[in-house]
Amino acid sequence: MPSQYQPHQRFTEADREKIAGRLRDAFADGRLDQPEFSSRLDQLYAVQTYGELEPLVRDLPPVRTYQTPAVVQNTTAAPAPGDFPERQKSKQAEQHGLRNLGGGFTGVVAINVIIWGVIGLANGGHWPHFWPVWLLIPWAIIIMGQLGKRR
User: Fold this and answer.
1) What per-residue confidence (pLDDT) applies to 39?
2) Residue 146: how many other CB atoms lie within 10 Å
């Protein structure tokens, strides 16, 4: 029992339940057999002072406390509120800045412009109306929206 209590002091029902929990844990772990567990539990509900409680748990291991899992122990602490960690920029993103601006839509626009050019060449230089403009307009809006973002 904790050293702040004197053997002659009476304990509370909460203390009794803690000791009962220790006895149940010891029984579940196989440290006590059924007759010994029943005997100690009966004694627990018959005693009234800390001095009478101590013999019931003297030979049992101390109370288990919570341990932080090893996976969590070695992690870095979260930043303080309002502090934002620096974002690591990849070299690939820096090298292909314009190509990455429009995302996958850039490839769609490029393919449509190439198709328009092939059709114009196949017609002997008679270029049709530049219909890929309808794809270039949203593409330009996407790029302009991404240029304003902080990277």
Assistant:
1) 93
2) 13
Query: CA-CA distance, 47 to 24, in Å (whole number)?
Result: 18
- Conformation bin of residue 30: beta by default, left when phi > 0, alpha when psi is -120 to 50: left
Residue 91 has pLDDT above 80, yes or no: no
pLDDT on residue 133: 86
Exposure string of 16-53, with b = 16+ CB inside 10 Å and e = fewer, is eebbeebbeebbeeeebeeeebeebbeebeebeebebb
Cβ atoms of residues 105 and 138 within 8 Å: yes
Q: How many CB atoms lie within 10 A of CB 73?
A: 8
CA distance 62 to 2: 11
**Residue ranges of the alpha helices (H) in the chain?**
13-29, 34-44, 50-57, 70-73, 91-95, 97-101, 105-122, 133-147
pTM over 0.90: no
Q: How far is CA 77 from CA 81, 89, 142, in A?
A: 12, 22, 37
Express each pLDDT in 33-90 by its tens digit: 999 999 999 999 999 888 888 888 888 887 766 676 666 666 677 777 888 777 776 6
Residue 1: its H or E element: none
β-bridge partners, 49: 10
